Amino acid sequence: MTTAITPNAPHHAGLHPLGSRFVKAQDLPWHATRFAGIEAKTLLVDKANGLVTVLMRMAPGAVLPDHEHVQIEQTYVLEGHLVDRSGPDQGMEVGAGEFIWRPAGSRHSAWSPRGGTFIAMFQIPNKFFEDGNKVLDVSGADWEELWGSVHASQTREKAEV
Question: Which of 19, 35, 101, 159 could be 15's S-S partner, Cβ–Cβ 3.0 to 4.6 Å?
Answer without folding.
Answer: 19
